[in-house]
Amino acid sequence: MAVRINVAIESSLRRFGIVRKVKRSQAVFMWEDIVGPGAAKVSTAVTCRDGILFVEVKNSVWAAELSLLKRDIIKRLNRRLGRGTIKDIRFRATGKSFQKAKAKHGKGEAGDTPSVKKQTLPSSEITRIKEFSSNIKDPAIQAAFLSFAITAEETREARDRISRG
Q1: DSSP string covering the chain, please?
Q2: How far is it, in rounded angstroms, from Cα 39 to Cα 146?
Q3: Which of 21, 62, 90, 122 is most buried, taking the most CB atoms under 10 A from its CB?
Q4: Pairing between strand 88-93 and 52-57?
């Protein structure tokens, strides 16, 4: 019976395109690591749809600067996420100040909705998730599931902390 469930999970993840969707959603969380703290102070990845990463940028000057680096950024993202995961990046100048990037761990300015940034899980929780996924035979699906489950749990914990105040 367990084998049938594993087969069903693996085929469902593939059929619904969840493996690719998980990898693409990770690009948003990786933005600061990929572009570095300097560019992250003036930009933030917002979402990824159909392989296009949408990034808000402080102003048009920074949008132009990051556009020049787009090819390199896409290569770095795909090196981590898998070839062809990110196809393009669209930069949008918003006029927003991204100096609050470090405030993601807490609350922003008065009246702002706090941003949610995932927090690292304890190793015991990661071990529990790894044990749960050990029955998935396909290594790519297992890796995508692990990544998705860990990211989802980290984000859930961060949201819980913020909602508790």
Answers
A1: -HHHHHHHHHHHHHHTTHHHHHHHHHHHHHHHHHHHHHHHTSEEEEEEETTEEEEEESSHHHHHHHHHTHHHHHHHHHHHH-TTS--EEEEEE-----GGGGGGGS--STTPPPP----PPPHHHHHHHHHHHTT---HHHHHHHHHHHHHHHHHHHHHHHHHH-
A2: 29
A3: 62
A4: parallel
Q: Are 43 and 60 in contact (CB under 8 A)?
A: no
CB under 8 Å, gap of 24 or more: what pairs does 132-135 form? 135/2, 135/5, 135/6
The domain locations on the chain are 2-164
Q: For residue 3, what are the CA distances in angstroms to 19, 55, 130?
A: 20, 42, 17
pLDDT bucket at 64, cuts 50 / 70 / 90: very high
**Token output for 86:** 């990110």
Half-sphere exposure of residue 109, counting CA atoms within 13 Å on the CB side?
A: 5
Q: Which residue in 17, 18, 85 sits closest to 51, CA to CA?
A: 85
Q: Do residues 85 and 23 touch, judged by C-beta distance below 8 A?
A: yes
Is residue 115 predicted with pLDDT exceeding 50?
Answer: no
> How do residues 131-143 score in pLDDT, each as one tens digit?
888 888 777 788 7
